[in-house]
Amino acid sequence: MRPGRDRATMVESGGRQRCVMFKRGYVEIQQIEGNALDHPLAERVHRYQGLHVLALATADAAATAQRWASRGLSDGELHRWGRPAGGAGGFAEFSFVVAHKAATPSALVIATEHHDPDLTRPAGSVEHPSRIEALHECLVSASDPGLATGTYAALTGVDPEDDGFGGRQFGDGQCSLTVGSPDWVRRRIPLDPVAPDCIAAAVLSVADAIRFAGNVSSAGGIALGSRGGVEWFSLSEIGLVLGAVQGDRES
């Protein structure tokens, strides 16, 4: 749901989504419905199917909106949306700010403040048959890695470090965002070709790598092999590349 034109009522957002919550981080699967040409993902989905949104957590979305606007990274508009959550008629609300798409061509970048965290992760919602523990890392392919690195440094307020493969990594020791060229992605993932300006892959921390691999295979996924301590898989029908690391490691 999103605010209507009068900003006083809630209306359908033009899409349906399912959130898969982990102990840390989450993945949201969206489907744009109807004539939702103004949906923020419409243009990106027409370009390719796969990962499109980087949602950064913030404790104060209003302050983040002001900071991004002061640096020319956003118009500073604060959005407040909500969705059913937690069962029994629960409704979780969240505020977010969106970065200018010209500033981040690789992804739709938002900073989100969840106002109802207990509804967002109700009891039992983070226990999965695939034994996924957390979102470990997102890999961003950029046609201009230097420019992209500077932009993400301004967005996150974090100084990047070298990831050991030539990419620049932003992380808090738990979940990382790593930026590099398409050639860098090929050094990280046994995958070719790699498109520029996209979220190339997501890495998940799993408690049981063998079970995870079996579940990906049963869903039509193809094992790409191991590289850099990560097992890589492709679900080509939905344009998704996933990596898996054993245990909830620190980046």
Q: If you average the pLDDT, what whole number results?
A: 88
Strand order of the largest sheet: 10-11-12-9-13-16-15-14
Global shape: globular
The end-to-end distance, rounded to whole angstroms, is 35 Å
Largest sheet: 8 strands, mixed
Tell me the Rg in angstroms: 18 Å
Structural category:
alpha+beta
Q: Residue ranges: pLDDT <50 for 5 or more in a row?
A: none
Number of strands: 16
Beta content = 35-45%
**Total helix count?**
6
- Strand/helix succession: EEEEHEHEEEHEHEEEHEHEEE
Q: Specify the helix fraction band.
A: 10-25%
Provide structural commentary.
The protein is α+β, with helices and mostly antiparallel strands and 251 residues long. It has helices spanning 42-47, 61-70, 117-120, 145-156, 182-188, 209-218; strands at 2-3, 10-11, 15-21, 26-32, 53-57, 79-84, 91-98, 108-114, 132-141, 161-162, 168-171, 176-180, 198-206, 222-227, 230-235, 240-246. The strands form 4 sheets. The chain has an 8-stranded mixed beta sheet. Strands 5-8-7-6 form a 4-stranded mixed beta sheet. It has a two-stranded antiparallel ribbon with strand order 1-2. The longest helix is centred in the middle third of the chain and has 12 residues, at 145-156. The two termini are 35 Å apart.
